């Protein structure tokens, strides 16, 4: 029996070859399944993902992650994937899906906070998904090597986009990335993926009140893990799972803006759902097999 191994370079090559629509589709499927209460059932494979959190503050290389896809009947490993970009990829694909669902007009400008892998993948995927984008600004606490490198990489990949970096004054004491609700203009759509526990804050709570309905990945998870939503005292009726919007979108004659109660800004909050990791890993493996990418080990289980 064969074992396919995909290195970090293999995965990066595959990501570059994957159209945005092929990444959004498995995310939409998992969100729909979650909101409908359907049981998750993979026809052939299950997976094990191991993510290591470095304990040294000097370690700036991200979270080493690997995913092993198993044959569900025999339990044999069939693919091992370097999944260090997996979280960023499934988060970005989910954000692009939310942007498609919630924005009434194609976006022309994009602002991102931070200069890590999440931001790199978010920007790359949004630029590929929305040809209307002309300008991107990356806001970082300081002008450092991470910011400069990210700008270089994106300019190489997207030479027609106006890209600039903006560093915040390090003496400014901001409790969140978006420090004041009045910084955000009318009609803005926000994708929030940076916080995943109650002690973390991404936006000024005033932004929550400006959005008539908060769109989230999981009501159950966000109700206990998202500080701004908890502080605002939101009930389940104030939040809409993105899976519900996917179902409505599917019922329309072609893509278009879904109908829902909206304030003067739109907010999508994702804390992360494990099933999306499985879906993205399967998507990457499928593309690798089509392109003939990866290293094959023969008779691994003999």
TrEMBL record:
SUPFAM superfamilies referenced in this protein's UniProt entry, alphabetically: NAD(P)-binding Rossmann-fold domains
Please give the Gene3D superfamilies that the UniProt record associates with this protein. Answer: NAD(P)-binding Rossmann-like Domain, ornithine cyclodeaminase, domain 1
**Pfam family of the protein (one):** OCD_Mu_crystall
Query: Domain of life of the organism in this record?
Result: Eukaryota
Q: What InterPro entries does the database record attribute to this sequence?
A: NAD(P)-bd_dom_sf, ODC_Mu_crystall, ODC_N
Q: Which GO terms describe its cellular component?
A: cytoplasm
The protein's matches in PANTHER family, at most eight in alphabetical order, are given as:
KETIMINE REDUCTASE MU-CRYSTALLIN (PTHR13812)
Q: Which family does it belong to?
A: Belongs to the ornithine cyclodeaminase/mu-crystallin family.
- The protein's name is Ornithine cyclodeaminase
Say which species the protein is native to.
Pisolithus tinctorius Marx 270
Which lineage is the organism of this entry classified under, starting from the top rank? Eukaryota, Fungi, Dikarya, Basidiomycota, Agaricomycotina
């Amino acid at each position: 029996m064969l074992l396919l191994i995909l290195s970090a370079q293999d995965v990066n090559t595959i990501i570059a070859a994957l159209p945005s629509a092929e990444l959004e589709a498995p995310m939409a499927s998992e969100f729909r399944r979650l909101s409908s209460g359907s049981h998750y059932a993979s026809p052939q494979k299950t997976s094990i993902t191991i993510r290591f959190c470095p304990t040294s503050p000097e370690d700036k290389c991200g979270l080493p992650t690997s995913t092993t896809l198993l044959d569900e009947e025999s339990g044999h490993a069939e693919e091992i994937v370097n999944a260090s970009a997996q979280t960023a990829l499934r988060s970005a694909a989910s954000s692009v899906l939310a942007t498609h669902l919630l924005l009434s007009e194609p976006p022309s400008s994009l602002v991102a906070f931070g200069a890590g892998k999440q931001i790199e993948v978010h920007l790359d995927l949004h630029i590929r998904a929305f040809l209307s984008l002309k300008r991107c600004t990356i806001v970082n606490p300081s002008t450092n090597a991470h910011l400069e490198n990210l700008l270089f990489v994106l300019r190489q990949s997207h030479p027609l986009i106006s890209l600039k970096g903006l560093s915040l004054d390090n003496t400014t004491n901001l409790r969140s990335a978006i420090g004041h609700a009045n910084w955000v203009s009318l009609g803005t759509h926000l994708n929030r993926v940076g916080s995943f526990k109650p002690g973390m804050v991404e936006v000024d709570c005033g932004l929550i009140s400006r959005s008539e309905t908060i769109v989230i990945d999981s009501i159950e998870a966000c109700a206990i893990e998202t500080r701004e939503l908890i502080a605002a005292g939101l009930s389940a009726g104030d939040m809409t799972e993105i899976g519900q919007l996917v179902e409505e979108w599917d019922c329309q004659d072609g893509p278009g803006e879904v109908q829902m109660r909206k304030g003067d800004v739109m907010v999508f909050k994702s804390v992360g759902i494990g099933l999306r990791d499985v879906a993205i890993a399967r998507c990457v493996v499928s593309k690798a097999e089509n392109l003939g990418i990866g290293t094959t080990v023969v008779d691994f289980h003999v």
